[in-house]
Amino acid sequence: MKKLLLLAFCFCLFMVSLAQSGKDTIPPQKQRDTAGIKKDTAVKIIPDTAVVTPVSDTADSTKAEKPSVIAARPDTDIPVASVAKGQVISEAEPSMQGFHKTLRNHPYFNFYGRGVKITEQLKKASRDESMFYFLAALLFYFGFIRIVFMKYLDNLNTLFFRVTMRQQQIRDQVLQSPLPSLMLNILFIISAGLFLSFVADYYNIVPGMNRWLLLFYCCTLLAVIYLGKFIILKMVGWMFNIRVAADTYIFIVFLVNKMMGIYLLPALLLMAFAKPPFLTVLITLTYVFIVILFIYRFIIAYRPVRNEIKLSRFHFFVYLCAFEIAPLLLIYKVLLIFVERSY
């Protein structure tokens, strides 16, 4: 029992001595911190600002004024500076002068330089681009006919220009080629319809109408006129038993129309992009050209028709007025009335 008491007493002494030794021992980090606190100048670090207020030395009995130190922020390399007592340094706030200085010294934009005047013109919508492609397609269409049916076009030119060569044999060769004849008739309808649309647009007959819709109407009008003329001439030839004269006159009419459709192409190319002064001259010259072709058609049609039937010049003139000129004037009048009602 005495031995147990002795062991317990020894253990208590050991624990007391161990606790006393722990109090006397100071970690190295705490020693460094304590040493820093005991310095003559105390430093107060503020995380968000670089301003340190002066702190007097408590250990100095004379309480002399000593400068405080601006400590560097942990995330910057700003050098330490010293300020006098009572002076407070704050972060620089943005000012209007600094803003203007920044704009003046901008490396890419000259905010305070002399203004440069830039003139801009309003882009106007043009219809020339679509018309250009349309005319290019029309020329390609004629070029295809010229390459594929070259012999047919040579015979057509022979019958049109050489009066003495208008023989039945060449005419029969031309009549035996219905496909190129149909394609050239389509070319005439499109070319003449495009010319009429240019004229209607120039004289402002149908203001505000779309160009392509106007072209469609003109082409349809020409197709109806010449299809009706073809049917009427065929019926007259059958009724009065003058089929040969009617077929001859039909052949000459469509022969001149085919040549007119070809020779209108250069005029259409110029009229599509010409200005008003030059456009007036072009339209006038085209009028003269078309009138010459019509007169030439009447001249070359009179002789073969007269050889088939006994027809005087007066009766032929009456026919021209009744079946050539009057229908055109009537259709023109009806078209004007229709346009006026539409607008």
Overview of the structural elements:
This protein is mostly helical and 343 residues long. Helices cover 67% and strands 2% of the residues. The chain contains 11 helices and 2 strands. The protein has helices at 2-24, 28-37, 96-104, 128-148, 150-161, 168-175, 178-202, 211-239, 243-273, 276-308, 313-342; strands at residues 68-70, 81-83. Strands 1-2 form a two-stranded antiparallel ribbon. Helix 5 (150-161) runs antiparallel to helix 6 (168-175). The longest helix is centred in the C-terminal third of the chain and has 33 residues, at 276-308. It is elongated, with a radius of gyration of 54 Å. The protein starts with a helix and ends with a helix.
Please give the structural blueprint.
Blueprint: H1 2-24, H2 28-37, E1 68-70, E2 81-83, H3 96-104, H4 128-148, H5 150-161, H6 168-175, H7 178-202, H8 211-239, H9 243-273, H10 276-308, H11 313-342
Helix pairs in contact: 4-7, 4-9, 5-6, 7-8, 7-9, 8-9, 9-10
